[in-house]
Design a protein that fits this description.
167 residues; alpha+beta; 5 helices
Length: 167
């Protein structure tokens, strides 16, 4: 399963870095600011110097290095977990999370911030601006939760016989 998880990590990392390069250098989004794509979707340039929702920006310039080090440690732990993955869903999910984390670490080390640009909004509600790496991390965590719930359900003891038995 390590090969499958590593492939997932590589594909997420490539998609993340390619999309960010396109936003930065192809569309020149830092200069443009925002582009309406659909009535519910914009490409909007945001330099995220913190973590999720811009948290932990109070460390100043050191925050990029601290957050990159923490993320790198998490990625190493994920690859240890990947070595023990018992099914495809777990392997792909761990790979997606690791690939997304590495993509955001690269941004922190290159730019001192993460490149965020996907801005979904509808009916007066606006979601936080995120990127491909963030989406892969969220989807990977959701897949792990789904797989865990499915495994727990499978491991529940099954009753044998009808409810009338033993009455």
């Amino acid at each position: 399963m390590i090969g499958l998880g590593s492939l997932a990590a590589l594909l997420v990392l490539l998609a993340d870095q390619a999309s960010k390069a396109w936003m930065l250098y192809g569309l020149n989004l830092p200069e443009i600011g925002s582009i309406a794509i659909l009535p519910v979707l914009n490409f909007t340039m945001v330099w995220n110097r913190g973590v999720t929702f811009g948290l932990l920006t109070s460390l100043g310039a050191a925050s990029s290095w601290v957050l990159a080090a923490v993320a790198a440690t998490v990625v190493l732990a994920l690859f240890v977990w990947l070595r023990r993955a018992e099914n495809r869903i777990t392997a792909i999910a761990i790979g997606a999370i690791a690939g997304g984390a590495v993509g955001n670490v690269i941004d922190r080390l290159r730019f001192g911030a993460v490149v965020d640009f996907i801005h979904a909004h509808a009916f007066g509600y606006s979601w936080y601006v995120f990127n491909v790496a963030d989406a892969a991390i969220v989807c990977g965590v959701a897949a792990l939760l789904f797989d865990s719930a499915r495994a727990s359900q499978r491991d529940l003891p099954r009753s044998h016989g009808s409810a009338k038995e033993g009455s």
